[in-house]
């Protein structure tokens, strides 16, 4: 290598985030919410009516579904005494029901026993993914692009996006799945060889989000297949996506990068 290039590399220093599990995000980042166990029914009912996507429920107990939440923050603005978003970004999980946060939730649980054995056996050290934007607004898509940048550097774990689904091990769906994209999404999924994984990235992919009741979306694809990883967020954060994938692939302890 030429001396000039070495000098440039030295000047750049270390740009990648060494430990993606312990990095601290800005306090204003909205990640896992905390709900109060002392909330009054009147206040919860008010939030239920306020939430645009029906993410907040009063029964059987006060809860917030991260798979529906758009992270708009209106509930916190309205009732900061009973709901507060923390900057905990480790909120991806492999079970849909684990996205429901209650007053007793201290972390989003990942069910390692539910991971298909072939996923860790075959994709633990290398995983190629095809991304399908199924009516997305390009926000989650941009964050997925950021996963490969010099800071997050997802490629260091052998994870990367490829163009051809035939060369991939799974697909990452973003967007609520519009009718116009449903056939293309199915074709893409069919083109990925078995065994394959399915990841839903972003609130819209997980539940339809704001478009949940729209006649322009077709959720039959999502309902037909088992999802291996749910990555909530609107948009998702690269740390949520990469850490969720690492949990799915390797079951890493918190201290390991
Ligand atoms: S932050 Fe989530 S739960 Fe709160 S009002 Fe917005 S969409 Fe509803």
Kindly describe this structure.
The protein is α/β, with parallel strands linked by helices and 257 residues long. The protein has a domain at 112-250: 3-Layer(aba) Sandwich (Rossmann fold). Helix content is 30%, strand content 14%. It has nine helices and ten strands. Strands 7-6-8-9-10 form a five-stranded parallel sheet. Strands 2-3-5 form a three-stranded antiparallel sheet. The protein has a two-stranded antiparallel ribbon with strand order 1-4. Strand 8 (170-174), helix 6 and strand 9 form a beta-alpha-beta unit. The model has no long low-confidence stretch (mean pLDDT 94). The protein binds iron/sulfur cluster. Residues 50-53, 55-56, 64, 69-75 line the site of iron/sulfur cluster.
Summarize the structure.
The protein is an alpha/beta fold.
List the helices and strands and how they pair.
Layout: H1 3-12, E1 33-35, H2 41-50, E2 56-57, E3 63-65, H3 74-78, E4 83-85, E5 100-102, H4 117-123, E6 127-133, H5 139-146, E7 159-161, E8 170-174, H6 179-191, E9 197-201, H7 203-207, H8 220-224, E10 229-231, H9 238-250
Parallel strand pairs: 6-7, 6-8, 8-9, 9-10
Antiparallel strand pairs: 1-4, 2-3, 3-5
The site of iron/sulfur cluster has 14 residues, from helix 3.
